[in-house]
Design brief:
- It is a single chain.
- This protein is α/β, with parallel strands linked by helices.
- It is 41% helix and 14% strand.
- It has 16 helices and twelve strands.
- α5 runs antiparallel to α8 and α8 packs antiparallel against α9.
- The longest helix has 26 residues.
- The protein is globular, with a radius of gyration of 25 Å.
């Protein structure tokens, strides 16, 4: 068996030119099979093992002429192997972004190649840098394998905040298929789980190193999988007997209106859209096991296709469906400014009470570049994807919002839910700790694709990290109620007009380690493995 690995390793090392680039591209695309909604986690093994072996065969072009050096850098260097792998990984993982450009195809379809290849090519630089550094820091062997895993996660973390951040499809997300596996994120966050995942995936590369003893190869290739088994076992132990408790007197109704994005902002359809939301909010309870009527109704991101704040007539109409002593929680665009101040628009969240009053407002603070605003607007004259010419303004940040008759909530609008460690207000802010996280979103932009599944998986990990229930309400789906252990209690199907009734789970009685120390746990992990990498017998 080891001889086969050695043969495959030799073939990968000898791979050159465009053939090498294509192989790396295909390996990167293959690894995406591990992500939602497919969750074929074993796909990571051939993908990452193949990448390590391509890195092993990377050319050193120090003595070449500069033209030859550039050519070899683009096709045969370690950076090239990682970049092509990253390009395949991000194209296959983010293809669904192109759907948003087809909502108004006449105006934006021409941008699809630039968006998909440009974005993927830029993110692939992170993988290229990780590969290049692993090549330079160690020769073929266990140390290079370990360095690569550490560098992959370090650049995942960097991708999460650099240039406003885009921590989508972190490798730890592949384990959302298993409730037990994701429990470790309560200690080290999703990137800690990414580290263990990448380390296991690349570890089998050592089987191809004929200069290592059989014993050392078997040891290096098996220990990371034993660690994954330990993670699963400890997660299963944590969940054993872990009962989901619910907040007394709170019954949520999640409304999923399923409004097509093409129709969303058509003026003539505003009344129809509002009636759709109202009708779903008033539907009789369907669950025969429960006769509890909703106390709180939740509508998705920008549910009202008009400015709700200051619209007394609309507020009076909406208040008719709000339960007594309860509230409506809804997304809505908001406008500020007047004669003497510049006009601003906000992607907002409102708490509306039965007396037709807005008692609290939260403004989205992490805006989507080119979707909600155009970076460097002075120099770039592009229209943003969302309706209207004015860029959205950014809110002040995470907040704990008071909700009548329910615990305080931490709202997250759209992709704000993908940012690990940023799901609730920092403790130092002095705000009351929220009792739950609410993610309102509109994934209609991405049609029937892997995007909404990936979005739900990422948001779900915030519940485990913070030990706090997550309620997700999406225009076209997937809407869900998740407890503080990350277990999905109820969910809807994608592209379905429906509603979902559920009690509100309580937060865990004790704060998780991650909620207390954030990414410091990940840093300790990285430093610990870095110390291990300095052991002499890893050469």
């Amino acid at each position: 068996m080891l001889s086969r690995f050695e043969k495959w390793h030799d073939q990968a090392e000898r791979c050159q030119g465009w053939r090498r680039a294509i192989v790396a591209l295909l390996l990167g695309a293959t690894s995406v099979l591990a992500l939602p909604p497919v969750h074929f986690v074993p796909a990571l093994i051939p993908a990452f093992v193949g990448l390590i072996w391509l890195i092993d065969g990377s050319a050193s072009f120090r003595k070449s002429g500069w033209r030859s050096a550039i050519w070899r850098f683009l096709l045969e260097g370690a950076f090239a192997a990682g970049w092509w792998f990253g390009l395949g990984f991000f194209i296959a993982g983010l293809y669904w972004i192109s759907f948003s450009f087809l909502v108004d195809a006449q105006q934006f379809a021409w941008m699809i190649p630039f968006a998909i290849f440009g974005l993927s090519g830029a993110f692939a630089v992170y993988v290229g840098l990780a590969s290049s550094l692993a090549f330079r820091l160690a020769g073929p062997g266990r140390r290079r394998v370990l360095y690569f895993a550490l560098l992959w996660v370090a650049f995942e973390w960097l991708r999460g905040w650099a240039f406003t951040g885009f921590p989508w499809n972190l490798l730890g997300t592949v384990w959302t298929v298993s409730d037990a596996m994701i429990q470790v994120t309560s200690l080290f966050g999703v990137m800690g789980l990414s580290l263990f995942t990448v380390l296991a995936a690349v570890s089998l590369a050592v089987f191809g190193y004929r200069h290592k003893t059989i014993r050392s190869r078997v040891y290096a290739g098996s220990v990371p999988f034993l660690v994954l088994l330990l993670i699963w076992g400890s997660g299963a132990w944590r969940l054993h007997g872990a009962e989901t408790k619910f907040v007394d007197g709170v019954q949520l109704r999640l409304v999923q209106p399923n409004i097509a994005q093409r129709d969303k902002w058509i003026s003539a359809l505003r009344g129809k859209h509002l009636n759709n939301l109202l009708a779903l909010s008033e539907e009789p309870v369907r669950d025969s096991a429960s006769t509890k009527k909703p106390t709180h109704i939740i509508w998705p991101e920008t549910a009202t296709p008009f400015f709700l704040e200051g619209n007394d007539a609309a507020l009076r109409i909406i208040s008719q469906v709000i339960p007594k002593n309860g509230a409506l929680l809804t997304g809505s665009p908001r406008r500020t400014g007047g004669k003497n101040t510049p006009a601003q628009i906000w992607n907002s969240f409102h708490v509306v009470t039965p007396d037709a009053k807005i008692t609290a407002t939260f403004d989205k603070f992490h805006l989507v570049p080119f979707g909600e605003y155009v970076p460097l607007r002075k120099y770039v004259n592009f229209a943003k994807l969302t309706a209207g010419r004015t860029d959205f303004s950014s809110g002040p940040g995470q907040q704990s919002v008071a909700v009548p008759g329910a615990p305080p909530v931490s709202p997250l609008i759209c992709y704000e839910a993908i940012f690990s460690g940023a799901a609730i207000p920092p403790h130092k802010d002095g705000q009351p700790r929220p009792g739950w996280i609410l993610n309102i979103t509109n994934d209609a932009w991405f049609g029937t694709s892997s995007g909404p599944y990936q979005h739900l998986a990422a948001a779900r990990l915030r519940a485990v990290e913070e030990g706090m229930p997550l309620v997700r309400v999406a225009n076209t789906g997937i809407s869900a109620v998740v407890d503080g252990y990350g277990r999905i209690l109820k969910e809807t199907r994608l592209n379905e007009r429906t509603f979902l009734d559920s009690p509100l789970p309580t937060a865990l009685s004790k704060n998780t380690l991650f909620s207390r120390i954030g990414d410091w746990g990940l840093l300790v992990l990285l430093l610990g493995f870095l110390l291990i990498s300095r052991l002499r017998d890893l050469d």
